[in-house]
Amino acid sequence: MIGDENYYSRFGFESASKYDIYLNGCDLEGECPFFMIKIFNMDEIAFKKGIFSNPDVFDVNENDVDEFDKKFGFRQKEVNENQLGV
Question: 3-state DSSP call for residue 44?
Fold first, then answer.
């Protein structure tokens, strides 16, 4: 998973590099703290060093995204008093 290590560590996520798992494009010698893993059962871990690559479906063309967004009507963002952080 990719996210804020300070937030997700409280749920048991650790740096994946601790288990020799790296995010494609990151330094294999260093730590990529935002790329994390949560081990549910240590007895089930049967891998050696690995590199994770996002599936191609996550690679999007920004122009295609813009064209897709144009299909929807304009929406005004509203902020209410009862929202978190307001």
Answer: helix
